[in-house]
Every structure is written in structure tokens, then in C-alpha cells.
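Bug #2210: C-alpha cell dump truncated for Flagellar basal-body rod protein FlgF?
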Amino acid sequence: MFRGLYTAVSGMLSQQRRIEMMTNNIANANTPGYKADQASLRAFPEMLMHRIQQTTIPTEKKLTWRDRTYIGPLSTGVYVQELVPNFAQGDIRETGNNTDMAIVDGTGTSFFTVQNEAGDVRYTRNGHFTIDADGFLTTTDGLYVLDETGNRIQVGDEQFTVLEDGTITKDGEQIARLRIAYAENVQTLTKEGNGLFRAEQELPPADTYTIRQQYMERSNVDLSRAMTDMLSAYRAFEANQKILQAYDKSMDKAANEIGRLR
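Reproduced locally. Full output below:
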């Protein structure tokens, strides 16, 4: 009896994690460059059930031996193995803001390279940039955008132009070129929040991409599918909850009625 109870609880916990994940996706549906998470569910190892019984041969010495009959497999529950970001490129929309930029590569494997105050390098698809008080090009969270030599980019004001290859020019002179990194296996990147990704090793420069100024990549969250998946997760959660309630009633009856001394 308790095995089924634990199986139902594991189902509830896994569906709860899925609901939390999809809630976060929906909340970031309008976040530029956001990559939706996907849950990978996996079942615990199955148990093979056998019935052990004693068989007696009607002889003078009554020979006996223990016989084992195969019954079948028993599932022991499910769990969320990992959350995997979907790196598919989001829609590109025009903003008219000179500091906004979008990477167009069709695969979602190219990233802007940014640096925090501690000097740590991070990667992002969010090209909603701004200019700080010192004239440096930064993200809205204050991380510095880096050029191809790994230096911070100082543009002064918004009167600059970004070419398709990432070259930044001002008054006809080249200031810098954006450092666009390429991830051969995006699943090795670690999601940190605020649209940032961390790599174990420095990513190499990308070869094939196009930078579009005054454009921004939207989130790749599919709202209609996310809502449908959330309702499905809610129904699965409720189904496991009803199973848990049924086990609770059975245990209550076993403890208070069947085991009662008369």
C-alpha cells in the first residue's frame, strides 16, 4: 500500500516543479532574449514483483521447495531530472531605440559577451542595451558589453551606428566591434537568471550572424502552448492528489475499523 502512496507523492512533486517552471516562462514572455525552460521527466527504476510460495510433492517424505512466480513490473515514481532551456531564436521586432541590438543567426547559438563588476564574463541574447554615466555600452542590469578584444565599449552617446558584422562606428570612424560568441553545444551553458548564461570555458567567436540595430529579439515563450501545458500539469497533479486521498481513506479504515477489537 505504501509503495503506491509514495508513487503518487512523487507524481505530485514532479508536476509542481513543472508548474513552477511554466509559471516562470509565462512571467518572462515579454523579457527580451529570454529562453524558455523545458522539463525533462524521468521514471525511477521499476521493481520486478515475484510471488514466493512453498510447493509440496505428495510423496512418502513429502518433498517441498520454494517456488517463485513472476508477477510483473511495478513503477516506483517519477521525478524532474533537469530543466533544459530552449535556445530557438525568438521573433525580431523593431524598437527604434539606437542602443537596441538583435542577433539574427536562425539557431540561437550566438551570444553577446558581457562582463560584470567582478570581471566575470557572461553571455546573453538580450540586446536591450543602454549607456551608463561614463558613456559605456551596458545592459540594463549594469553589465558591460565587450568588444572582440575583450574590452569595454565606450560610445559616449547614442549617436553611433552598428553594422551587420557588429562593427560600431561613430562620425565615420570605427570605435569597436561587438564580441559575438558561439556555443557549439548550448546545453553546456548554465542559466543564471536575468537572461545570462555562464560557460565553463570561454566561448569562441561566432562566424555566421547578422546584427540588426534598433531591433530586439523577443522571448521564445509560446504562450498558448505554455498555458495548455500548465493546465495539463494541474490535471495530473489533481489526479495524483485524488489517489493520495484514496490511500489515506484506506489507511484510516484499516487502522480504525479493520483493526478494531470487538
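Output looks complete on our side. DSSP finds two helices and 19 strands in the chain. Marking as cannot-reproduce; reopen if the truncation happens again.
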